[in-house]
Design goal:
By secondary structure, the protein is mostly helical. Helices cover 77% and strands 0% of the residues. The protein has a domain of 58 residues. It contains three helices and no strands. α2 packs antiparallel against α3.
Length: 94
């Protein structure tokens, strides 16, 4: 984990340090964060996406009662509970 003691004191060295960290993260790192926070951020993104999918499937099943969407909804609830377990389990183990 990066701390303030890792950052050099003078401005030029601090800027070079920042650019190195920026290059290290890459394109996906800009969205998901560094290697310390990326797993939690990806799990949070998956959680949000799964909740949106469940809401959409619930709306779809209300609009079309003959559609059999219960298995898909149950599958997304499995993903949601597993992701919540990962997020909270990761925070308590650190």
């Amino acid at each position: 984990m990066s701390s303030t003691s890792d950052i050099p004191k003078n401005a030029a060295a601090a800027k070079a340090h920042y650019e190195d960290k920026h290059k290290e993260r890459g394109m996906l790192g800009k969205f998901f964060g560094g290697k310390e926070h990326a797993p939690t951020n990806i799990a949070g993104f998956l959680l949000l996406l799964s909740i949106v999918a469940v809401i959409f499937l619930l709306w779809l099943s209300a609009a079309y009662p003959n559609a059999r969407l219960s298995e898909a909804i149950v599958s997304f609830f499995t993903v949601i509970t597993t992701t919540i377990g990962f997020i909270f389990g990761r925070q308590t183990s650190e």
